[in-house]
Amino acid sequence: MVLGAIGLDETQESAYRALVAVGAAEVSDLAHRLALPENETERALRRLERHGLAAQSSARTGRWVAAPPGVALGALLTQQRHELDQAELAAALLATEYRAEAAEPAVHDLVEVVTGASAVAHRFHQLQLGAADEVCALVTGKPVAVTGMDNESEERASIRGVSYRVVVEREVLSLPAGIVELSAALGRDEQVRTVERVPTKLVVADRALAMVPLTGRGAEPAALVVHASGLLESLMGLFEAVWKDALPLRLGGGGRGVFEEGRGPDATDLEILSLLLAGMTDASAAKQLDLGLRTVQRRVKGLMELTGVTTRLQLGWHAYERGWVAR
To answer: I want to staple 145 with a disulfide (CB 3.0 to 4.6 A). Which of 108, 121, 162, 168 is the partner?
Structure first.
């Protein structure tokens, strides 16, 4: 639904598109085109009329004509932009007032407790959607309120140009959708690293707002939202320490086009290397990449022959030295 941003629902948008296609039509003809009852079609037209997108013909009773999209939609979009500008101005003024009143914030104002799966998920999405520059996250293999597959806010923030640095623990690689989610993240140019285990779940937006879990397994989901403070600086320091020691992950064809055919590993070889260096077994890597175990073993043997080594430890060292994987 493209025109939802200007207040049209799916039926109204379909009615307008159909009316634009024919220029003018009777309610009965339009209802037939839309496969809708006539009374529902007429309600949609009345709503379009209020938006200035349609009008009843003065020459023929019962006939409706479409307003020119360039003029009608342009006016609505201009109005929406004006309202957004006003809202942004109001938000800036409120933020100024808040800072003036809270120049010396009380300790209890620096943290807030969010309780319940729905509230935690909502705050998690809100934190990312409000980010302007960077989101940093530590991800465990046991999601409570939010899973990777329903984290649409991450994709929307990436589209806006927000950079992501994410450290996932090894267990995430073995989850049913783990490789798919991580490949999608890498495809959005997010930086992803992996470690054996992260100390806690954590997300930090713009180094100004953080969120950490409060409850363990089995309890009602709850989280602590931390505002700018010494505690937030400590959480950011924790992330940077974990990030520094984590291993970069390479998936989803990140190496395509880097090597000439026959002179180095292909994209699949690089994915296998990345997973093996992250600590996965041949069997686990084969399962996650939907390859046969023998295929993985054959490719690893080929890489060992290419580098002239006899052990996998040496292969890992040569992979770093040749830039096949990043430090």
So the answer is: 121
Q: Which of 146, 134, 140, 148 is nearest to 184 (CA)?
A: 148
Give the residue among 108, 116, 190, 107 at the shortest CA–CA distance from 148. 190
Per residue in 4-46, pLDDT (tens digit) is 666 678 888 888 888 888 888 888 888 888 888 888 888 888 8
Q: Judge whether 204 lies within some domain.
A: yes
Same structural domain for residues 114 and 223?
Answer: yes
241-252 pLDDT, tens digit per residue, is 998 888 777 665
Q: Are 233 and 244 in contact (CB under 8 A)?
A: no
Range of the domain at 308: 267-321
Q: Is residue 88 assigned to a domain?
A: no
Pair of tokens at residue 40: 């529902």
CA separation for the pair 272, 274 (Å, rounded): 5
Neighbours of 165 (CB within 10 A): 18
Residue 303: name the closest of 256, 257, 270 by CA: 270
* Strands 222-227 vs 209-213: parallel, antiparallel or unpaired: antiparallel
Residue 210's φ and ψ, nearest 5 degrees, are: -130, 160
Mean pLDDT of 51-78: 77
DSSP string, 272-288: HHHHHHTT--HHHHHHH
Q: Which amino acid is at 55?
A: A
Residue found by looking up tokens 């220029």 in the block: 23
**What distance in Å separates the CA atoms of residue 266 and residue 243, rounded to the nearest whole number?**
27
Please, are residues 275 and 290 in contact by the beta-carbon 8 Å criterion? no
Query: How far apart are alpha carbons 291 and 253 in whole angstroms?
Result: 15
- We report the CATH number of the domain holding residue 287 as 1.10.10.10
